[in-house]
Design goal:
15% of the residues lie in helices and 41% in strands. The protein is mostly beta strands. The protein has one domain: 4-Layer Sandwich (Glutamine Phosphoribosylpyrophosphate, subunit 1, domain 1). The longest helix is centred in the C-terminal third of the chain and has 11 residues.
């Protein structure tokens, strides 16, 4: 697969929606993830990422402007033991709870489908990172309708064992802006991952569409020690 420049990919798409990047830093020392959200409506733009005990959650920047919490208030990132779960919805909790009961990532997601936001039927995108004993692997998933037909749920899981240094994969909800919004197509895009969290955070944020970007989360996890360093950027403040 051809490796793409993630910054150019983002600059070329005014509305990729929500996106997940997972990979390994160029020096091979860090497991890396990034998650961003965008919005077109007042309700979806009225959000910030805040840290929690085991990850992050979305909250209303201005609670008085929150008209509908459904599908926009959730925990995008949670940590379960040596596993970091990253998703674009409340399936984070589904994965966390069912994997805690010894089900697999894929089994957990078989209980869910695309979002109930007719006519978009937005895909549910998810990722999981396993970091332990000096080893690292990850998987990504997309649950979507069949080209906008809600009668069929399409489920795809992509696994990456012993990821290559400097390589990551990027999956997002929409191919671009539109009405209805066109769902992501194909497998996760191969992208480069740098060594520096500050560089990665700054360049991702700069590349996202200025009008539509809302929040960005980036985490680097030391593969040897499991120690994590995170960055959050919010366009709107509480």
């Amino acid at each position: 697969m051809k490796q793409l420049d993630i910054y150019e990919e983002l600059k070329g798409n005014s509305y990729p929606g929500r996106g997940i990047v997972i990979g390994k830093s160029e020096d091979g020392k860090s497991a890396v993830t990034a998650y961003f959200i965008m919005g077109r409506s007042v309700n979806s733009r009225n959000r910030v990422f805040t840290e929690t005990e085991d990850g992050i959650k979305t909250e209303a920047a201005d609670p008085s402007k929150l008209s509908d919490p459904h599908l926009i208030i959730y925990s995008p990132v949670r940590v379960l033991g040596n596993k970091t779960i990253v998703t674009n919805g409340d399936q984070t909790d589904t994965i966390y709870e069912l994997m805690d009961k010894q089900q697999t990532f894929e089994q957990s997601l078989r209980t869910r489908e695309y979002e109930d936001d007719k006519p978009n039927f937005t895909p549910r995108i998810s990722g999981i990172m396993h970091v332990g004993d000096g080893k690292y692997n990850y998987a990504m998933s997309i649950l979507k309708s069949a080209d906008g037909n809600p009668d069929c749920v399409e489920r795809f899981t992509f696994t990456y064992s012993n990821p290559l240094n400097g390589v990551g994969h990027f999956i997002h909800t929409y191919m671009g802006d539109g009405s209805p919004l066109p769902s992501f197509e194909g497998e996760p895009k191969k992208v480069a991952i740098p060594n520096d969290i500050d560089e990665f955070t700054a360049k991702l944020w700069e590349a996202l569409n200025e009008d539509n970007k809302v929040s960005l989360f980036v985490r680097f996890i030391d593969i040897e020690t499991g120690k994590a360093v995170s960055k959050i950027v919010n366009k709107y403040s509480k």
